[in-house]
Amino acid sequence: MAEVILSDVTKVYPGGVEAVKHMDLTVHNEEFVVLVGPSGCGKSTTLRMIAGLEDITGGTIRIGDRVVNDVPPKDRDIAMVFQNYALYPHMTVFKNMAFGLRLRKYPKKEIERRVRDAARILGIEELLDRKPSALSGGQRQRVAVGRAIVRNPKAFLFDEPLSNLDAKLRVETRAELKKLHRQLQTTTVYVTHDQEEAMTLGDRIVVMRDGIVHQCDQPLVVYEKPTNRFVAGFVGTPPMNFLEGRLASADGHVTWDGAGAQIRLPDEHAQRLGERVGEDVVLGIRPELMSSIPEGRFAGEQRGLPVTVNVVEVLGDKMDIHLSAEDGTPMVARVDAHERFEEQAKTQVYVDTEKVHVFEPGDAGPNLCLGGVAASASA
After folding, report:
1. What is the C-alpha separation between 60 and 69, in angstroms, rounded?
2. How high does pLDDT run on average in the chain?
3. Which of 136, 214, 307, 317 could form a disulfide with 323 if both were Cys (CB 3.0 to 4.6 A apart)?
4. DSSP of 128-166, one letter per residue?
């Protein structure tokens, strides 16, 4: 096993398109790190540079104690699982898993042992004589992982390996991958566009956009303390609600004024936000921080927000309530199923103000509740 270290790594394609910009990232030994972001953010390019399938334009990539900038993919001692699994259709599962070992001229007994050990770990022992065409999507995915396991590499690289599976199987396979990593303890870099997948799998997640790392930290830290508006809106389902307004001062407290409401902001941020009274800002409210019931954590003064109920979606024990604020801004509240909302009715929702965020204007405006300090990717 080994660390994977990217230092000031840049990738520029012909025509001057910068896919990755001065990226610093350390994936620690035995750590599971997930690169996540919208399409075109540079996450797959980063993975392919680690694998050696893309040349880097600048910077250094180190795997273990070796700089691999000019080392061909086959000599980097990594194993990659692709989105389409890349299985050989004319070979059995056993031969697919053994293929890389045979190329490296491992003894037959060693190949047999490694393949059967990997098959046992993955629960596919009964599939070894089948061909890929006779397997389900989930089984093919496990075979692709098995082919990586038998190599006993320094690092695993996964490029959106669950994107071809249906929703139920994706959840099941996600749990299997988590369990497998706990068992093998192999350094892993995993790419996905699915932020829920990233949150559940990663020891740390790296949120990217336009080739830039916007935040790198533990999943819950990224969720609860997003460094900017882009991260806040990308991580979380349903996404965070954003309302434009202005900071004001009332009765010795800092408030957000906008959309026909005045929301008192947490006192712990009063000094930092107080310096910006009179400035335009964006209030960020997670869907689960709203309720129709002004009790419990929603109780208190200056927590109400006038809204119009547009659509009610029942999800079982929860409901997603699609709302419009007084200024027309669309919002979503995720509430308990016992709460009462009538479509097309005007009402008021109450906000858990202790957990709201305040951002500078702009689609990547810094989180003012954190002082606007970005998280380091190399941490």
Report:
1. 6
2. 92
3. 307
4. TTS-GGGS-HHHHHHHHHHHHHTT--SEEEEESTTTTS-
